[in-house]
Automatic annotation (TrEMBL):
Signal peptide: none annotated. Keywords: Chaperone, Cytoplasm. Belongs to the SdhE FAD assembly factor family. It is found in: Cytoplasm. It comes from Piscinibacterium candidicorallinum. Pfam families: Sdh5. This is FAD assembly factor SdhE. The keyword Protease does not apply. It comes from the Bacteria. Coiled coil: none annotated. The lineage of its organism: Bacteria, Pseudomonadati, Pseudomonadota, Betaproteobacteria, Burkholderiales.
Amino acid sequence: MTAVALQDHDLARLRWRARRGLLENDLIMSRFFDRFGGTLSTADAQGLERLLDLTDNDLLDLLLARKEPDSQLADAEVQSVLAKLRSA
């Protein structure tokens, strides 16, 4: 199965949704979109959407590798986008 790239409007919507209340999360998200925004697939977007459902503090703990995703977030889509976020 090949990855399908996001349309510009989908990327813009995702970037808007990624705005967070914690500055640290915003900085990581901004770097992530600057680095990977043009290459994100629909699978990446689905994984990111699931991460964005978390509270700011839980998300920051994952981004800084203070903890690992629980079983509900242990699928390949989330793991892939989390690795990209952590490297951003």
